[in-house]
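Our preliminary data section would be incomplete without showing what the modeling component actually yields. Below, a chain of 253 amino acids is followed by its predicted structure, encoded as C-alpha cells that our downstream tools consume directly.
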Amino acid sequence: MKIKSILVSQPQPVDFEKSPYGELAKKYNLTIDFHKFIKIEGVPAREFRQERISLTDYSAVIMTSRNSVDHYFRIAKEMRFEVPETMKYFCISESTAYYLQKYVQYRKRKIFYGKQNFNDLLDVIRKHKEDKFLLPCSDIHKESMAELLEQNKIDFTKAVIYKTVGANLKGVKLENYDMIVFFSPAGIKSLQKNFPKFKQLETIFGAFGESTGDAIKEAGFNLHINAPTKSSPSMTMAIEEFIESEAKKARKK
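Predicted structure:
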C-alpha cells in the first residue's frame, strides 16, 4: 500500500518544516499529523511521602529524561528540600544534562552523562560507587535499568515522582491515517482505552524502542516498523526505509 498519511503520537516539532518529519513529508508528499497519546502527571508530595524516601539521604541523582529532571526539582520544592550544590547528576544523554540549566548553574555542578543509552551511563556511574543514588522515574519505566544497577551493586533507590497516563484522544480519527507511530507502551494503552473497538486492519504500526514494539505485539497488533536499528537509528529514518521498501515491492509486481 502507498503511505499518504501518518499520525505521530508526540507533540509537533517547533520548526516542523526544517525537522526530519518536515523533510520526510516534503520528500514523499505525506500528510503528517501530531497528537500526544499520553500525558505526564506529577505525584503530589503527600503521596510521595508514603514511599518513605528522604531526599536528604542521596548524594547523586540519575536523570533518564527531561521529565525526571522537572519532577525531581518539583518534588524537592514541594518537600521544601534545598538541593545541595554538592549533588551529583548522572544524565542519560548530553541534551538531558544541558536541560539541567533550567534549575542549576551548569558549570558549577558535578554533571555527568552517557552518549545516549543507559549502558553508556552505567560505565560512568560505576566510577562513583561510593555515592548513594536516587532514580526518579514514572510509574511506567524500564525495569532493565534497575536490574543493571543491581547487577553492578550500585546503592540506589527508585522514586516514582510522576505518572504516565492516557491523554484524551477525542476528535482524533484513526481511520484517516495509513500509519500510526508510537513511542512508549503507555501510548498503546492510551489507544486501547480511547478506542476499545479499534481494529488495526491495514494500518501500519511503527514503534520506537524495544519495549514499545513488545507492547504492540502483546496487545495483539501487528508491528511493521521498529526503531532504532543500525540502519535506521531514528524513527524518521525507519519510516523512510519502510516506504522505500514498499515502493520496491510495488515496482516488482
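The chain has a mean pLDDT of 92. The longest helix spans residues 235-252. Preliminary results of this kind motivate Aim 1 of the renewal.
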